[in-house]
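# step 3/5: fold
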Amino acid sequence: MSEEKKEKTQEKREMHRTSDSERSEISETWAEETIADLDEFIESQGIYIRQ
């Protein structure tokens, strides 16, 4: 995996942590957002899942 992609993924994770701590309510689409985040994390580890 390229170094640039690793940095981008790390920045996104940090952004999510910050926004989660600032957010007091759960969004209506939290489940879909979580699935997308998990899919992205798994793919960033080099594992691809058939949809």
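# step 4/5: annotate
The chain has a mean pLDDT of 76.
# step 5/5: archive (pending)
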